């Protein structure tokens, strides 16, 4: 183990590579990464990076986003099979069909989408800026894809817009139930319940705080509660515990795992970095169009 970590660090130094990791990655990957964050933070970090080689420990749509925002850089995805089932619920043709049905609407796509879907959208958003992005689009009708739970949350917070939803959902977050929340309240009446907006509507309505993974980390630090229950993928517990040793953290109900987020191991990271394999390659036109929707997001928040 120490040997593999040493090799990765040595290669990283030699190649002047930047290792980025999402908050759901396994602890060993989080600990070796240069930066660990949510989708928005990772996008910004990849864009602002001086390194010409980025190794992205996360899922495909995140590595694609890094490539779109830094097209001159080489972006590697060590776990080449790490997709996101939520992103796969919609394709670019679906977006074009929605446009035909709602010609006056702008399309806002969550970053959990393929590069092609982003390219077919007017603007992108992440879980941390979705409400602000939708508030700022110039049309009253807004097509929001693909996550219906985040979409409902946006709808509730931006009542002045007519929001058309796609029926996509994250199988990890949709496993949390209202009963899990009610049981947690009974067991830990003094605890604060913080959840991700991909959770079901009834959970979003009854919890104490809704935020992206970075927002959850921020809230946990600021909260006066000594026990915090989290409704998101269990990988976030690593950083939560590390940053708040005086607090106790539990998953809402049974802890839930995103299998794709766990596909990156130290070994895969080493092989990808060493051989510079599993590079993200996208068509120039897709990069340009998707880049426009992503850059617009940054201007809107
Ligand atoms: P965040 O942007 O909040 O980290 O979420 C990404 C994700 O995939 C949630 O399931
Ligand atoms: Fe996709 Fe859900 Fe995994 Fe996030 S947790 S990457 S939305 S499957």
Radius of gyration: 19 Å
Could you tell me the mean pLDDT?
A: 97
The number of domains is 3
Strand order of the largest sheet: 2-1-3-4
Shape: globular
Could you explain how this protein is built, in words?
This protein has 14 helices and 12 strands. With 301 residues, it is of the alpha/beta class. Helix 11 packs parallel to helix 12. It starts with a helix and ends with a helix. Bound molecules: 1,3-dihydroxyacetonephosphate (13P) and iron/sulfur cluster (SF4). Iron/sulfur cluster is lined by residues 59, 84-86, 112, 170, 172, 198, 233, 258, 260-261.
Which labels suit this protein?
single chain; 301 residues; alpha/beta; Rossmann fold; 3 domains; four-stranded parallel β-sheet; 44% helix; binds 1,3-dihydroxyacetonephosphate; binds iron/sulfur cluster
